[in-house]
Write a structure and sequence with these properties.
five-stranded parallel β-sheet; Rossmann fold
């Protein structure tokens, strides 16, 4: 049995990924950390969710999605003045990606897939300015 901390209790998180299985895993993990989680299946859906269900305390987005990438969506939100902390995740190996993520501002973290649940938890903790009240253990 796994026991998780509740360090994200009450935090509103928007997760965007077109890979339904990964979207489920990330959302379920964040929900176990007591975050309130909303889902988006594309960059345009991410923008729509921000407009209709926001504000959010944290955004977790994949880069490679149909119609609008996670980077394009986040650039649009930054241009509109939204400074929500962002975790950008990708399996792409393009060497330009870390600089592109960094260009979104200091409140971003880049995670290369596959990543450990502990990496996601640590990135979320840093970005929402909280520390873990417990630890992930078996």
């Amino acid at each position: 049995m796994l026991i998780y901390s509740s360090m994200l209790s009450g935090i509103r998180v928007l997760v965007a990924d077109d890979d339904v299985q990964l979207l489920d895993v990330v959302c379920d993990f964040l929900a176990r950390l007591e975050a309130s989680v909303a889902r988006a299946s594309s960059g345009s859906d991410l923008i729509q969710q921000l407009a209709t269900a926001g504000p959010f305390d944290l955004i977790v987005t994949d880069i490679s999605m149909p119609w609008m990438s996670g980077l394009q969506a986040m650039r649009s939100t930054r241009a509109a003045g939204l400074a929500t902390p962002v975790i950008v995740m990708t399996a792409l190996s393009d060497p330009r990606i870390p600089a592109q993520v960094k260009s979104l501002g200091g409140n971003t973290v880049f995670l290369r897939k596959p990543f450990a649940a502990s990496e996601l938890e640590a990135a979320a903790a840093v970005l929402v300015g909280q520390t873990s009240h417990g630890e992930l253990r078996n």
